Amino acid sequence: MYKQSGDFVHFHHPQSPQPYWVSYFGTLIDVEILHRDILPFLNKTAFTSLDGVKAALPFEDVLITSDLQKIQDDILQGSVLIQLDVKDATCLLVRAEMKKAREVTIPEEEYSVVGPKEAFVESITTNLNLVRKRLPISELKVKEFTIGTLSKTKVAVLYIDGITNEENVNTVCQRLSDLQFNQILDSSIIAQLIADNGHSLFPQLIDTERPDRVAGVLAEGSVVILAEGSSHALIGPISAMELFNAFEDYYVNWQTATALRLIRIFAVSFSILVTPIYVAVLTYHYQLIPKDLMVTLVSSRRNIPLPPILEAIILELTIELLREAGARLPSKVGQTIGIVGGIVIGTAAVDAGLTSNVLLIIIALAALASFTTPVYRMGNTIRLLRFPFLLLADLWGLLGIAVAFIFLIIHLLNLTSLGRPYLEPIYPPRLKDFKDSFIRFPFSFQSKRPGYLQTKDQIRFSKKKASEVHDIDE
């Protein structure tokens, strides 16, 4: 079966002290290991059994087996098959896989000025090393799975024994075991397949490229998923408040971190609501506009032939087109397209009388505000949420915005992450968890782990001992 592939090698060494047959995929193994560490030992001595070959080879990962399925799987994962007789059903497998991976680099999506400058890569072994060197404890457990009928992707579930709730670990492991999918090419596919609600716009697992963030959430009692070939780890369960928290918040003082979190929450609310409010007020509630501002709005819309809703949708779609074009083009060209295209199109639209300069400023500010979320997937959610709010604002004005907001709250109340409430600590209300949600209290106030994780050990450190003041002579 394997001989039908051009990269499969099967050769016989009749001139050695003991004739043998070797089989492998040339594209999967490291040829240097084969010629340096395997073939010289086989050509040196006459072996009477595979046990003698196993004892002579300088490898730990050596297996003697007659299981055909095991043989097939190991060859496809980079093992060399050795037989003393081509007709033997029992053979020896030596792991000599080629390991090609890029070097550890700085984070690109979650870059921070303060803090470590390491990011995950596509090798699960390297990623586990980055986590273990930050948590060098025996309680850090790793459960491995192989998922995907075609891709055979190696997936690892990480948690800290004695801290993490076993129910959360069992939930993740059960969902991974039950997956029926042909190829798992990235951890983002796993996030969609094991989510509590696969139809929701809101991310129910956070993906991160920062090993320090993974180490931090593991110490809090979360579960982390790593996948071979993916440079992002999945974190769960999560709450909606974590979508506004950057891990850099823990590297600055608590006053600065709190201010940044409040700015992000305001920016997200502004990005979703400002354009629908503009449409609703100009369509139904112009009495709410102050007289001084009314003059400005009237003069800006004097020659606009379109109603506010069409004007807003055209500009929103233009912004989305520019953003998508900038993301798909090479980085330097994309940045130029985004800046130049926005200036040229915006200026031309105002000069042509297709849109008002006031709405252009509002749309631009809303687009900027949507970029303040630390989690990329949440930014996409905000971009899409604006459109139903816009349509309902055009139908019923401010009442339509209120109806859209009610449906949004109902959806969030019903949403869960690995079975845990999504809106915690708002609902169900947990006052002790507010110390690290909208605001970040000093570390001395965070002596307990988040309540929604239901960890085995709630105590992070002894608050009494931490607050003791020792005399300098002691």
UniProtKB/TrEMBL annotation:
<keyword id="KW-1133">Transmembrane helix</keyword>
<protein>
    <submittedName>
        <fullName>Spore germination protein</fullName>
    </submittedName>
</protein>
<feature type="transmembrane region" description="Helical">
    <location>
        <begin position="389"/>
        <end position="413"/>
    </location>
</feature>
<keyword id="KW-0812">Transmembrane</keyword>
<feature type="transmembrane region" description="Helical">
    <location>
        <begin position="358"/>
        <end position="377"/>
    </location>
</feature>
<dbReference type="InterPro" id="IPR004995">
    <property type="entry name" value="Spore_Ger"/>
</dbReference>
<dbReference type="GO" id="GO:0005886">
    <property type="term" value="C:plasma membrane"/>
</dbReference>
<feature type="transmembrane region" description="Helical">
    <location>
        <begin position="262"/>
        <end position="284"/>
    </location>
</feature>
<keyword id="KW-0472">Membrane</keyword>
<comment type="similarity">
    <text>Belongs to the GerABKA family.</text>
</comment>
<dbReference type="GO" id="GO:0009847">
    <property type="term" value="P:spore germination"/>
</dbReference>
<dbReference type="InterPro" id="IPR050768">
    <property type="entry name" value="UPF0353/GerABKA_families"/>
</dbReference>
<feature type="transmembrane region" description="Helical">
    <location>
        <begin position="334"/>
        <end position="352"/>
    </location>
</feature>
<dbReference type="Pfam" id="PF03323">
    <property type="entry name" value="GerA"/>
</dbReference>
